[in-house]
Amino acid sequence: MKHYLLSVCYPAGGKPPSPEALEKITRDINVVHRELKAAGGWVFAGGLHPGSSATVVRYQEGETLTTDGPFAEGKEYLGGICILRAPDLDAALQWAGKFAKATTVAIEVRPFQDEAHR
Amino acid sequence: MAGLPIEAIERLFRQEYGRSVAVLVRLCGSIDAAEEAVQDAFAEAIQRWPSTGLPPSPVGWIIKTARNRAIDRLRREAARDDRHAAAMTLLEQDESQEANVVRDDRLLLIFTCCHPALARGAQVALTLRLLGGLTTAQIARAFLLPETTLAQRIVRAKAKIRDAGIPYRVPQEQELPARLRGVLAVVYLIFNEGYMATGGDQAIRGELCDEAIRLGRVLVALMPEEPEVQGLLALMLLIDARRSARLGPDGELVLLSQQNRSLWDQRLLAEGQLLLDRCVQRNQPGPYQLQAAIHSVHNSAPGPEAVNWRQILNLYDHLLLLQPTPVVALNRAVALAEVEGPAAALAAVDRLELQTFYLFHAIRADLLRRLDRREEAVAAYERAIARSENAKEREFLLRRCQSLETP
Q1: Which among A88, A109, A111 has the least Cβ separation from residue B167?
Q2: Alpha-carbon distance B310 to A18, whole Å?
Q3: Residue of A nearest to B179 (CA)
Q4: How deeply is A83 buried, as exposed, middle or buried, from its count of CB atoms within 10 A (0-12, 13-18, 19+)?
């Protein structure tokens, strides 16, 4: 079994969904979460507050430096993550497809380095 | 019979490399280890076969030897690493491989090479490297890329297959149609790059056409029930049959309507036609079968003036339904010009958003020429020339353009 990180990529500056749309998205995501748990692939998942809530910490010349985040302004921002267990990439991509449908945005799939999870 | 020439072994290498690597990837679970083992086995064959002659099943011998080399290598490394020990157990369990029945795992390998998680360029490079047995240098030359760029592309793709866990298997039934389309697209891209090189000063790079057809044959043998697989091979054969008529004495491009039909390869035409007849009987039309049918209509006409353009237009209409892309619409317009005249075709072409595509301007230019709108035709030829990346194609367009300027 391998571990994958699914990142929910929101386009920066996109219009936030209406409350009704958001309710449906939340409902749909919960359905996928339940399905993932039932299939034994669940590790962790959660939505994130926007980048404006982020704080960045650095260690420089013997001191920690704390600044208002986010770390980098990109074309998209991380809206949430899911860590799952799957036998191979095809299985992970199938979950990503379900999340993409539920969240209505792009999902990035990345494998974890093996050793940490052996 | 001793004295087997080295060339015969090299030929065998090209023929059997993909099949051997495919089996070894399944056994070792690693592409790099599989390639190394197969190369070791061929190195041994080059030492041995010139004096002993070919074994009864050369590919069986190569696979067996490669498997033993892989075990040797792992045994050396297993002392240091548990993971290698586990891999070795897997390899040793596979004693069951009967000596004479060699499993063909190339289908697994091609689906891995053409996995949608890999970039198209990487899919093409991996397919040519692993299934075609082409060297990195050969692939780089064929695609006019620096060898280091191509080598890096292959290394990265192999790393992604390993790290991301791209599986080594034929996709499940519900994924198969989409994944197969990806595989066929890679093979056809290799063919097209050979047939109409996008860059460089050679119009045709035959080795890429040959390789694509070879891959097409492998796919037909491995998936005999898929009409589009047969359709693609038929399409490539029907086009490739005209290869020697497509270039004039000075290597210049010759239009289909002006080709010397006696130069067409009758054997390839017959083979392509037979395949096409067979797959259309299944009544599951697809883009490759339809394109093959269009070429078949061209080929079966006794001469360029006797082409059944109405039938070609119907086939394009059907193709446009399955593949509603501007490029298909552009090609359809060429048939439309023959059926309804150049004015109707020009109107259809002018509706397309293809300004960056040289062929769009070349076809517009030709239609304008036929409508006797000379100045506009010259301007369109110039735009086509500016956008074509192939020297032979530019020369061809330039000749057409000049014939307009000097009446």
Answers
A1: A88
A2: 53
A3: A90
A4: middle
Residue segments in chain B with a per-residue pLDDT below the cut of 50: 1, 98-100
Chain A residues closer than 8 Å to B173 by CB: none
* Burial class of residue B272 in the structure, from the number of CB atoms within 10 Å of its CB (0-12 exposed, 13-18 middle, 19+ buried): buried
Q: Do B59 and B20 form a contact (C-beta atoms < 8 A)?
A: yes
pLDDT at B195: 84
For residue B40, give the amino acid letter: D
pLDDT for the residue A97: 97
Mean pLDDT confidence for A88-117: 91
Beta-carbon separation of B166 and A89 below 8 A: yes
Residues of B in contact with A109 (CB under 8 A): 164
Give chain A's contact residues with B (Cβ, < 8 Å).
Answer: 2, 86-90, 92-93, 109-111, 113-114
Report d(CA A31, CA A45) in Å as an integer.
13
Instruction: Please give the pLDDT value at position B1.
Output: 47
**What separation in angstroms does the CA of B383 have from each of A50, B187, B279, B343, B360?**
48, 30, 40, 20, 10
pLDDT at residue B88 in the model: 65
Instruction: Answer yes or no: are the C-beta atoms of B216 and B233 closer than 8 Å.
Output: yes
Residue B356 burial (10 A CB sphere; 0-12, 13-18, 19+)? exposed
B405 touches chain A (CB under 8 A): no
Q: What is the total residue count of chain A?
A: 118
Q: In this predicted model, what pLDDT tens digit does every residue of B363-382 receive, in sequence order?
A: 999 999 999 999 999 999 99
Q: Is B175 on the interface with A (CB under 8 A)?
A: yes
CA B354 to chain centre: 25
- Residues in chain A with CB shorter than 8 Å from the CB of B166 are 88-90
pLDDT beyond 50 at A118: no
Q: What is the DSSP letter of A87?
A: S
Is the separation of the CB atoms in B130 and B21 below 8 Å? yes
Residues 6+ apart with CB under 8 A from A61: none
Interface contact flag, B166 A2, Cβ < 8 Å: no
ipTM of the complex: 0.86
pLDDT of residue B200: 63
Position B91 scores a pLDDT of: 65
Residue of B37, B40, B50 whose CA lies nearest to B9: B50
Say yes or no: B117 contacts chain A, CB-CB below 8 A.
yes
> How much is the pTM?
0.86
Chain A nearest CA to B258, separation (Å): 49
